[in-house]
Prior knowledge:
Elements lengths: L9 H32 L13 H8 L2 H32 L5 H8 L7 H12 L4 H9 L10 H12 L2 H12 L3 H9 L4 H29 L3 H6 L4 H9 L9 H28 L21 H28 L4 H6 L15 E7 L5 E9 L5 H34 L4 H11 L6 H11 L18 H26 L4 H9 L4 H29 L3 H6 L7 H10 L10 H26 L4 H22 L10
Antiparallel strand pairs: 1-2
Helix pairs in contact: 1-13, 1-18, 3-4, 3-7, 3-8, 3-10, 3-14, 5-14, 5-24, 8-10, 9-10, 10-13, 12-13, 13-18, 14-24, 16-17, 16-19, 16-21, 16-23, 18-19, 19-21, 20-21, 21-24, 23-24
Amino acid sequence: MKARSNPLSPKYLVKVFGFAFFAYLFLGFMLMPCLNTLMSVFNTTNAAGERDPWAVIRFFFAGNMSSFVWNSLKLAVCLVITVNVVGVSIVLLTEYFDIKGARILRLGYMTTLIYSGVALVTGYLFLYDSNGIITTLLTDAFPGMNPSWFSGFNAVLFTMTFACTSNHALFLRNAIRGIDYNTVEAARNMGAKPFKVLWKVVFPTLVPTMFSLTVMTFITGLCAMSAPTLLGYDSINPEIVRLAGSSSADEAFPQARAALLSIILAMFTIVLLTILSSYERKGHYLSVSKTKAKLQKQKITNPAANVLAHIYAYVLFVIYMIPVVMIVIFSFQTYGAIRMKKLDLSQWTLINFFGSEDYQYLTNRGTYKTRKGSISGLFANEATLGGIRISFIMSAIAAALACVIVVAACSYIFKNRNKKSGVALEYALLFPWLLPTILICYSYRTYFNSEDVWYVGYNNLYYAENVRLLIILAYTVVKLPFSLRMIKAAFYAIDEELEDAARNMGASGAFTFFKVKLPIILPSVLAVFALNFNALFTEYDMSATFASSYGTSYAMVIQSMCAEEGLYGYNVNASGRRCASTVFIMIVSGIILYLVYGVGARDLGERLELKDKRRKRLERLKARFSRQPVKEEVS
């Protein structure tokens, strides 16, 4: 007979506490806020104060709410086409075909990994806005051209097409590099032409990855926030944020309308992720030879096709690189040059990064007035420093919490992989993936904006500085599914024999975890922490949903400064600080990506080889600089 657990033993108490904590997390911060949002749709009242559960539904069909859904669907469908065309192109050009300068091209195509969201849209506005650099050149060459061409649907589609190829650059690249070259060589030996091999042999192996990328691209277009907001396109997410900040005095039941749009987004997301999961469960595999050969780049034998491929590759390179280069250059220009979009190579300055200057402006009365320190750099401005500090702290805490929760959960899931409790815990942590981020944040904003929630101590979490805790909770919950997928994969690398050996030597479960398991998974955990922090530090959409002066993130500070640039002599060089901010974000993101995908991706053999090379290089340097004439010893 199996012995019953001692209810007072530390192990049993930890287990009970763990179950209680995850139940509290799931019910309190995932399920209840979203159910409250669902119920708010049917709790609306009419002008007479009577409850009318179908009022919002009638308003949806009678008003213009359906247009926001249609606009988001149109953007999502078009993005699936354009992003896949460009994404597949950049991967084939750098990984499959033999294109000159492929390494340089790859670096250009992957620039979207180091800046995204508001920073990326800002870069494109800097070039293509009504007074942007490229637009100015085009209007000078073609006087009849509309200078406001870069706005609305076309501008959003163009910007997001090149912004959303990051997943292709990461995942599709790995899929192509994993192709067995023996199958390609066999097709070539049978007389198949290069493009027929590509279509009949290579593409079928990429179908599972392409399907996943297509679904994720569709969801990205459906839930787009930054680009539609800044480029003036009426889609679902910006409308939800607008309605969330409105009141019934301004328009009819705005909160219920925002809730309904959030639920529509959630329905689309659930259906798409269900289709993706069903497709993945079918198990699409490709038979390859037992001795897998590394893929070799294919030459384009047709001279005309080869020239066109090179032209296309470098045109894409220019499109990707121009925003990055221009932002970096203009971040060292004066505020006047930046506002006029005129490059002045005779005047270089660090004012956009460091230091401050006074600004004189002409008032309505014809007199000059001086604003002390109105021209200030990124690291000399209190507002931007405050935004950096708040974003850094909130992002670091949320990224760490997500990793700690998931590591503890994975440890339990692997111990109870054949039990219902382990499966239930895993699905509970994946629950936020079924919902759009905007729905989670909106639900938090409305549900915790009261003193009626007992399990948070009847505290209003949306009030004053409490909103920072609310944002951290939202950040953590949103990052749980991604952290689970990544860290769970690391747990598979743990050899069960190591755990058995530690147990046979009398080690406790906690000792085995901290001394045996944790060192093995720690690199993956740190990589997940870095990626989570990288994404949250530059995040705009979630913090914009909460819209509180006490929880203003770094991206929101920069955006609000540019909205009021030069007003009454304040924030004169906000555009300069925004350029400097984008450069700062690119540096931080680049360092993190290098640590994760550069240093962190090397296996033990590669690390030992690099260590040996550094040792030999150091020895050669020492030998070169220590060559001195040898003195003869005197007997």
